Amino acid sequence: MSARTVRRRVISGLMTGLVAALSFTAVLALVLILGDLIAKGASSIDWAFFTKSPVPAGESGGGVANAIVGTGIVVGLAALIGLPIGIGAGLFLAEYGSGRLGFLVRFIADVLNGTPSIVIGIFAWTWMVKPVGRFSALAGSAALAILMIPMIARTTEEMVRLVPHSLREAALALGYPRWRTSLRIVARTALGGIVTGCLVGIARVAGETAPLLFTALGNLNFSTDVRHPMQTLSLQIYVYATGPFEEWHRVAWAAALVLMGLVLILAMVARWVTRQRYGRVR
Amino acid sequence: MAASANVRLRLETVRLTALFNRTAAVREVSILFPAHTVTAIIGPSGCGKSTFLRCLNRMHELSDGGWVTGKVLLDDVDIYAQDVNPIQLRRRIGMVFQRPTPFPTMSIYDNVAAGLRVNGRRPRKEMDEAVERALHQAAIWDEVKDRLHSSALELSGGQQQRLCIARAIAPQPEILLLDEPTASLDPAGTQRIEELCHELKRLYTIVIVTHNLQQAARVSDYTAFFYMGGLVEVGRTSELFTKPQVEQTEAYITGRFG
Fold it and tell me: How many domains are contained in chain A?
């Protein structure tokens, strides 16, 4: 073995070790958070935790069923509003967004993407809470949808752009109209990536608290009426973790664990969806 | 239904010029493509042969800044006339590209059916027959008949290209445009495609762009030599390769440049 080969091997080994160490550090944060949540929250989780609403302070027992259902409703409604708009905007940007309008939309999306979520919360409060004179889950959903749209638009655009141009041309040469090429060929080829982007977007907003503070507000009772205040896991964690009671702190830890679990499940589904029907996407 | 076998369609360009913004990539080309013949378009890289081909089914105008002057006559009707719908037109003129482009989300069957479905719904049985016929014509039926519903990406490059030919001919176009269809294939795959050209000209009028002179000599009845965006010479392949009229042509086919 020549000196040069030895040197290459040593450097290769060092670099591999370095990269491995850095990856480990990155994963460590997640492991520590998860470990902490399990250590402090797992013991409080039982069947009642998922099926019962909270009990008045001082009493023991009860659960966070209202917050789990509330999270589902608020986030689900946000997805219902945000996904079609976000995906549509992304498709527009990728397929027709080379002009001035595309540039404008892209710029606005980027600015919106960087806007602090609490600002979006205030915005939703100004337009949907103040005029009505009532906090509502609907306003919360709208705030989350606004938060979601630019994220989803930009990932959709990226995914659609990855579809080779030759595929588009092949469809057009077959006599596909442009809109049909975009939807049936291009969007479908990018579908795995788009769905993943959507799920990641949903997971992102599911944990948001700030935009819900003065929109959905929170609710100690079980409620499914979107025109009224509603509890979500994030709001519950916020209130309980900062509250004075030991019992509340335990519930907050457990709720955090549940929320983390939900996000984890979404991320796993995203992974699973990406493995497309026909294997590779690109 | 072998309707296209009876059609005597003429394709002709009259002083066709293709431009990108203000730059002409093809200048004043007039060629007649007789029905049921194979015409090869040869020339060095960048001579405008692909651009010319893309004018024949109005794909050129989809490129950034692409536009055209002159005429392309399909049975004496200018395909660039106001009342011609380019989308409808492209259904009458099939095209196959340099690299195989099967639709990755579709099965083999759906790939071939794609061009038929865009023309409107039709009964299941009729669709099955049309797909089978196209796959037979593209000489790939025997290789895929047992796995019509698996992914088109499982096929080899050469098979994918023949699948693309099947997809292009399934709607029974009148003209078939091949843009260097064997550029990314191995010799065996190339040979199959060339044999296919001989078969298919009974049914279609074929225009094939190639940078392989032997291929042009093997598959075509007529050959057109392009240089720097202009048509230098066009004639019977046998004549053009043995006694070219223009010196540039001779220089190119004897390998002195390009």
Answer: 2
